[in-house]
Amino acid sequence: MIIPNLMVTDIEKSLNFYRDILGMELVVLVSPQKDVSFEGNGAGAAFATLEWKNQNSASNNKADDNNKETQSGGQIMLQTAQSLADELSVYSPENSPTPSGTIYFRGLDPETILNKAPQDIVVKGPFQQWYGMNELYLRDPDGYIICVGIPAGNPPQ
Fold this sequence. Notes:
The protein contains three helices and nine strands, in the order E-H-E-E-E-E-H-E-H-E-E-E. Mean pLDDT is 88; it is low at 57-67. A hairpin with a 5-residue loop joins strand 2 (25-30) and strand 3. The chain is an alpha+beta fold. The strands form two sheets. A five-stranded mixed sheet has the order 1-5-4-2-3. The chain has a four-stranded mixed sheet with strand order 6-9-8-7, with helices on one face.
């Protein structure tokens, strides 16, 4: 499993986005003093891990067990610049997030997310891509471009 670790300016604001809009669940919060918590709003935290479940993962159908669309989602980590600088000398506390590319969450329904998202963070969509996915692009509090998508049509043959 690949778990991205995003540099963020404010764990609390990021938690509001990933938990309240995308529906992710908090796994752990860590303070700058390395105190661990499994709940909270992220105020003052240096690090957090969240996870999401594919919205199709609740199937009780055994035939779905090998279908990638029914498997669990994954995790994402959020870490402040100061915390990263404390751990890795290639960073400094003055670093700020520099988004490039997009982060794709396959299995999160764009229409459901759109109903929770403030209009000013919507970048594009929802719309059906030529390859059969219904997608929505959003901007998180640090400028990372997040795409959520589910299969909605036939992929190219």
